[in-house]
Amino acid sequence: MTPLDETDKRLLAILQAEGRLPIQELAARAGLSTSPCWRRVRKLEESGVIRGYAALVDARAVGLLTRAYVHVSLVDHSEETIRRFDAFVAQEPQIVECASVTGADDYLLKVVARDPEALEHFLMHRILRLGIVRASTTHFVLGQKKETTVLPLD
C-alpha cells in the first residue's frame, strides 16, 4: 500500500470526480503550483495508485438495457477449471465485473445485455455451455440506486 498524505488525497478526490482536468486547473483546485502537482500525479500513476483513465459510458445510452448479477458455482476447484473460467471471464465483454467470493458460490458476475433474451442467450450458450459450471443464479437489476467509481480516501 502506498502511503497517501492529505495533498495526495485531495488530488485523487478531484481526479476521481473529474479525470480530464488540465494539470493547471487540477493544481489550482488542489492548492499547488503546476510542477509539484504534475510530479505528484505522475508518482501516483507510477506507484499504481492511479491505474488509468477512462470515459464512463452510460450502458442504457448504448443500448445495454439489461443488467444482472450472476452467482456461479463451478463443478470443482481444480487449477484447470479455475484457469478456464478465469480465461473465459477475461475475454467476455458482456461480463463487466467478476469477483471470486466466499459462501455457497464461487464467483459473482455483473453482466450487461441488450435485453432479457440476449442475457438468457449469453447464460445458456456461453456460460453454461462451458461445461465447468455446476450452478448459476441470476438476479436482474430492476433499478440502480447508486453507481460510482469514486473510492473513499479516509
From TrEMBL:
Transcription among keywords: yes
Domain HTH asnC-type: 4-65
Transmembrane segments: none
Highest taxon, organism lineage: Bacteria
Keyword ATP-binding: no
UniProtKB keywords: DNA-binding, Transcription, Transcription regulation
Pfam families (UniProt xref): AsnC_trans_reg (PF01037), HTH_24 (PF13412)
PROSITE patterns: HTH_ASNC_2
SMART domains membership: HTH_ASNC
Protein name in the entry: AsnC family transcriptional regulator
